[in-house]
Structure formats: C-alpha cells, structure tokens
Fold:
Amino acid sequence: MYLYPANEIREMDEQANACGVLTILLMEHAALALYEAIKRIAQGHTVSIAIMCGHGNNGGDGLALARLLERTSHQVYVFQKPANHTFSKDVQTQVDILNKMGIKIQNQLPQNPSFDVIVDCIFGTGLNRVIGGDDEKLIDWINAQQAYVIACDIPSGLHADSGQIMGCCVHADETITFAAGKCGLYLQQGVEVSGKIQIADIHMPYVVERSYTGTRIINASLFCSMLPKRKLNSHKGTYGSALMIGGRQGMSGAIILAAKAALRCGLGTLHVMSNHSVCDALAVCAPEAITHVLPDEHDKDAFQSFLRQFDCIVIGNGLGRDEDGAWLTAQVYQSERPCIFDGDALYLLGKRQIHGKRFAPTLFTPHPKEVSYLLDTEMEKLKKTPLERFYELQKRFPQATFVLKDTKTWIIHGNHSYINVIGNDGLATGGSGDVLCGMICGFFAQNKNMEAAAVTGVYLHAACADKLKKTQSTYSILPHDVIHRIPDTLYDLLNTNR
Structure:
C-alpha cells in the first residue's frame, strides 16, 4: 500500500484514461467500494442513507452508489448541490442514468433528517480554496447529524497534501480512499477528521501504478523483511557496537531509556558517555552498558580517535543545549562514523548552523518543532506545506535519513519514503522519542542499514504501544512500558509472519 500527493493521483487518472480505462469505469469501481462499506456497516439490516454529492467526480461516485443501492431495501436520499454550470461528461452521465431510472436527486436538505449513514461525496482531492457560504452550511449540517459518516476518497474540506482544514471539514467516522492513500489523510488535522482509513482497490492499471514510487505504508510483513537477521555462528561483535552521548545533569532518564531500548533490540555492545550520576545509575538499571564519563576538556583529536571505534554514535538524548553540548554535537557531526541525531542535538544543529556534507550513514529523528529548528523556519509555514518542508530537509542534509515524528511517523531515505500508521496516543509522552531512538540504534548496529533500522524501529515502537493498549488505558502508558513490551511484541511479529 502506498500514499501519493494529489497531483500524482491526478496524473494516474489521466494515464489510466490514456490506457483506455475511462474515468467513468474508475467511478463505478469507487462506487462498488462504497457499496461494500455500507453492506459491512448495515450487517444485514435495513438502514437509511443520505448520499451528499458535489459537482465533481466525487459527486459522480456518490451518484453511481445511489444506483447500486436502488435494488436494496435501504432507504436512500440523494442530494446534489445546485449548480450554476454544466457538469463534467462523466458526472452528467451519472445524473442522466438516475433520471432515467426515476431516482430523484434532491437539491434541498431534508427538514427532519434521521439517517443511519451519511456518505460524503462533496469535495475531492482537488480542493484548494477555503470553504464558505452554502458549502460551509452543508458541511456543518453533516457534522450536526447523529449518523455514521463515510467520506468518499477524502473528507470534504481537507487539503489532500497538507492535511489542513480549508475553513471547515466533514468529520468522518471512516474514509474510503481509492487506488492509494492521500498524504493529507495522515498529516496534521487529517488524522483527526478521517476516522478509520480504508484504501480500496479500484483496479487502476498496473502499468500506471508501477510508474510511481509513492510513500510505502509499513506493515508487519515489511517489518519482518527488513529486520536484522540473527546467526547461529555469531558473537557480540557480530551485532555491532554503539556509543550514546547525553544524559547531562537533570536529564538522565532520556539516555537511560534510549540505552535500555537499544539493548532490548539485539545490539551487541553498548557504550554510554554521560556524567557520573548517570553512569552510576546505568550500573544498576542497565548493567549491560559500558560507561564513560563526559570529557572535561575539548580535545578534538582525542575525542575523534575515541569515536572511531564504534559502529554507530547516538547523540542528543538529554544532552543539554549549552556550549559543551554544542561542541559534542559538532564533533559527532564532523566524524566519519554513522550517527543518529536526536533531541537536543537537533536543536543545536539548527540553531548553531552545524551542517555540511556527511558521507557516513546519518539519521535525524525530529518532531515538528525540531524540523523548524533544522530549517530555521516558523511552525506556521511548516503546517501549511509540510511536504515541501520535508523536501527542504533533504536538500539541506542530502545524505541523511529522516524519521519525522508526528501523529503518524514518516521516514524519508533518498528516493524512498515510508509512513507508519499504527500506534496510539499512549506514545504522546516525554521519553517516548528516546525509546524510539534507542530501538533504531539497536537495529542499525546489527545490519548497518539506516533505512531498514528506521523502518523496523518505528514500526516495533508503535506495535509495542498497540499491544499495551490491549491491557491498559493509553492514559497510563509510559516509555519504560514500551521497552518491557519489546520482547513479546517482537516474538509475536516474527512468529505470525513466518
């Protein structure tokens, strides 16, 4: 399964037409997917359904659905916005079919509505204006009903790329999106208004689908295929060595969480460089880690020599943002070793303008605020065009892999991109990112593949949270709970996907 921006979806439609798969046929397949969703929701009962149609192809999908429902026992109300212009050829064909079948298309909202299901077919992925006037009233009417709302392709009012609400938006219980996922469903407010997302196959020609790379949705099968392989003939050196730098005064928890997570993911040898108190704490809570006290002096040559012995260096977990933190971050960035930059190191990279080409594998794990630090941009600009900001990051740090943490986590590695759609709000707590960072480190040290480490770390982190949700409230999930769930979650994933 893949996600695409709206312009590529439109190109796919045009290419499908060029192959002879006409829009009206894709419209029929979309209507069939909506029909199957209604069958599932109705569960054999008769329900009342309102299909709210616009003027574009989304409206055509809804009109085709009305025809499919005509032979069922369901009560169907078909509404289409009054138009002051002619419809497209395909939408007009759907209108003509319903008229010839005697299925009435209403232009007025019902006075005393009582619907079980509302199907939103008003606006599609082409919306690029702020909604107001009668359109806003229509969307407000839908949101005021006590019905189960299905959005056709995308909730009306949601920007297909940014996930921003364009003035107002339908709040769907479920979105049936066609051919591929739309980026906006998984970004910003799109996560809140889309409900459960189902990607329906509308039989886009394969020759069209394979001409686009898209953003791949991570699933358990992909996770298992990218997981480092264990060997019978092996020792601790087989599974890599890593150094973590951080845990300054008052921030010991961050690096302790990262260290324990890395060890639980199969890392061979872990070294931690921190202050005396953190080193003492690690001797108790993670005795497997080898500890080093942070240097008192800024001796570049000695420090670079020390770094060269590790397969992976992680910096930023509870590092602090002072001069010592900035020096350590700059030294790690200038080293020739594979590196993961997290937390305070991301702030320092942006604010101290520490950048330039790195040729060793490099990974950044920013949340939105940290993206704004790295790009020296305002959060408001980031929200309006998040996909463009992702591409800006790639230009500034061309060799880097990015784990972009938000409600849904995006991974960008060169021309490859991934999205993780599992997990829950139990991860929205301080320290969760440190656990994720440690997991990615643990996997990278074993297979020396930053792309695979990012995909497997992100997915396992979320899967652990979903396992926790089965036995406790998300109010109560803490980062160390996630670490405790790594063994059995990993075991289940491997045994289920053999």
